[in-house]
Amino acid sequence: MSESQAQTDIDLDPVTFEVLRSSFTNLVDRMAEQIQRTCYSFVIYNRDFSNSLNDAEGNTVMQGSKDIAVHVGTLHYTCKETLEFFEGDINPGDVYIVNDPYLGGTHINDVRIMRPVFHDGELIAVTQSNGHWADVGGPAPGSFNIDANSHFAEGLRIPPLKIWDAGEFREDVANFMTTNMRLSEDRMGDLRAQAEATRIAEERLLELVDKYGVDTVMTAFGESKDYVERIMREQIRDLPDGTWRTQDYIDADPNKEEGYVTVDVEMTIDGDEVHYDLSGSDEFIGNFLNATFGTSFSAVIAGTKMFFPDVPLNSGMYRVVSADLPEGTVVNAPEPIPVTGSVAGAYEKVMNAIFELWSEVLPERAMACAFNLEYLLAGGTDRRESREGEEFAWYDWMAGGWGGRDGKDGANATAPVFGAGLAVQSLEGQERDTPLLTSQHEIVTDSAGPGEFRGGCGLRKGGRMLDCENAVMSYCSDRSRSITWGINGGLPGIPHGVTLTQDGEREEMGTVFSNHPVSEGDEFVRPSSGGGGFGDPLERDPEAVLEDVKDDYVSVERARKDYGVVIEAIDPDICAYEIDHDATAEERDHIRDNREDWLREDPDAVAQRYRDGELDELDLIRRYGVILDWSTGELLERTTEQFREMLGERAESEWEQ
Q: What phi and psi values does residue 214 have, to the nearest 5 degrees?
């Protein structure tokens, strides 16, 4: 359905409607510019924020054009919950604050500021700003505490509060909150920056009311939502009815024996509506990788929206797309179950599962699994001469590879799917603010999942602690075991995880830990996976593999093992390589004849060959489908069984016999 067709059903004339609809987008984007220029937090400065214009009932009229995906769908619920909480006591000049993840939110670091907008004494809208605060208290700097067994051990949970009451700033309330957070001055600065953004949006909205009249603007609110609903229904109506189902996985539940935690997603298209049923997902787990209802609904909307990029986003889409998210599961954990790490856990698993489902319905837009979001955090006392005695909080995320696509390789070194609008943080800015030095930041050779169209490449980032005191480090990620997977015959990427070197001793720390002591001279490094591959790697053009070798995306060894392309290195210093076409044909035949048997070899024997140095990590993952505890070399029997089953469904079943 074209935009011109969609506009034929509106009450406003098309020109006025389009001007106002665009004005709403501009209004929200102006909020973003205000926040980025006045925030105190380096995290928010790098665009971990979002904004919205909501109507008087809390429905989203418009979200920003550069908002990150994880906030999609949650601002709607947060606004409704807050309006309900203050019903009967909502006044001009009020400003509200809330971070409660169980009231339609995400996690406690996402702090929402809301301002009701009045015209002639009547509530007409709410302007809302959401920013990820780098710390909201709790025992771990950054408030990512893997040891938490409830939200009480994560940080300060803020129910709906008035932070401005009829125009009067409640400094006592603000001080109470920020005093319980690290770098409280920064937190107060972010609070004021977000509040000012909502004020600017209020000012701009009232200018539109003065120009066009309140009735016209309110009509445009309703028509903007109806417009999105109509476009979405038309596009869904053109698709075949049916039900599709898949699963993705979190590495493990620490309270149970090893084995994946299942995130089960069933999608049904019925006429002009889409419904997701996640009731097959496992129960909530014993760490903070669980998601709340708001987080998982956000993943459903964001995952769907990726396949309908031309559809604007507001509450009109929520009339077309619905979800069943049973309470008590990993995708809808009840209070007080910890959920701070949800975006690295259940959230992105829902998104990637939805990518696979829509890849079946819209194969021309198909995409394999993307790398997993990860956060590395450190905090303590800065002892550098320029910042002697100051508290510091280093909060870092990495780019990585997205999945291979139908007809195109995946995107290299880009933002995680949870936050496609995130910026890669400036290393120089980080080094100025914190006693950490970045020692490396480069693309990881062989990180991309092999396929006819390979995944995008991941990165490796390393650093060293400088002069500091009482410093600790925490890490939040996943997919050390549920490794980024391919589709249509494509193969996986590489495991996530941090390696820490202290006093010359190297230790594999895995993907989740909190408050590990670190000191000056300690070094760390972690990779991000590339995206999963799309299509059979043996069908990739050998010339494309050769170019990947020249670019250091693929090594000569893995070109042979993963793609069956035999390449001779003539002079690597000048990128002089040559394909041996006869040897390539033989190698590809050899792989075709043996790869199904490799996936059925005795896992214990394969693990022993790894420990003996005969096989490497990628041999186990991509050829034999064997998963180990990478820090000890111990075979994970149940995980291996599940991983092989996944490879059978997504890769082996698609290979040409």
A: -65, -35
SS3 381: strand
For tokens 């053009």, name the residue: 541
Lookup result for tokens 């990478």: 630
Rounded to two decimals, the pTM is 0.94
What is the rounded distance in angstroms from the CA atom of residue 419 to the CA atom of residue 423? Answer: 9
Q: How many CB atoms lie within 10 A of CB 344?
A: 28
291 Cβ contact partners less than 8 Å away, ≥ 6 residues apart: 299, 330, 331, 332, 333, 339, 342, 345, 346, 347, 350
Rg (CA), the chain: 25
CA 508 – CA 630 distance, rounded (Å): 8
Local structure of 523: helix, strand or coil: strand
String of DSSP letters for 215-253: HHHHHHHHHHHHHHHHHHHHHHHTSPPEEEEEEEEES--
Q: Quick one: pLDDT at residue 5?
A: 43
In this prediction, residue 10 has a pLDDT band, given cuts at 50, 70 and 90, of: low
Q: Sign of torsion, CA 188 189 193 199?
A: positive
**Is the dihedral angle over the CA atoms 105, 106, 109, 115 positive or is it negative?**
negative
Q: Tell me the three-class secondary structure of 478-510, residue by residue.
A: CCCCCCCCCECCCCCCCCCCEEEEECCEEEEEE
Structure-token match 């006429």, residue found: 271
Virtual CA dihedral for 296, 301, 303, 304, nearest 10 degrees?
A: 140
User: What is the torsion angle, in degrees rounded to the nearest 10, for the CA atoms of residue 175, residue 178, residue 179 and residue 182?
Assistant: -160
Whether 6 shows a pLDDT value over 70: the answer reads no
User: 535 and 489 in contact (C-beta within 8 Å)?
Assistant: yes
pLDDT above 70 covers what percent of the chain?
98
> Considering only CA atoms, which of 278, 244, 275 is closest in space to residue 261?
278
Tokens of 541: 């053009």
Burial readout 504-521 (b: 16 or more C-beta within 10 A, e: otherwise):
eeeeebbbbbbbbebeee
Q: Which of 254-268, 421-435, 518-532 has the lowest mean pLDDT?
A: 421-435
Separation between Cα atoms, residue 603 and residue 637, nearest integer Å: 8
Q: What's the token pair of residue 554?
A: 């693929």
DSSP conformation letters of 81-142? HHHHHTTT---TT-EEEE--TTTT---TTEEEEEEEEEETTEEEEEEEEEEE-S---SSSTT
SS (H, E, C) 408-427: ECCCCCECCHHHCCCCCCCH
pLDDT of 337-386, one tens digit each? 999 999 999 999 999 999 999 999 999 999 999 999 999 999 999 999 99
Question: With 60 as the cut, is the pLDDT of residue 1 above it?
Answer: no
Give buried/exposed letters for 29-43 (b at 16+ CB in 10 A, else e). Answer: bbbbebbbebbbbbb
| Residue at 437: amino acid letter | L
Render pLDDT for 134-185 as a digit per residue (tens, 0 to 9): 999 999 999 999 889 999 999 999 999 999 999 999 999 999 999 999 999 9
SS3 content of the chain, % helix, strand, coil (to 5): 35, 25, 40
pLDDT band at 9 (very low <50, low <70, confident <90, very high): low
Assigned token pair, 513:
């830990």
Neighbours of 385 (CB within 10 A): 7
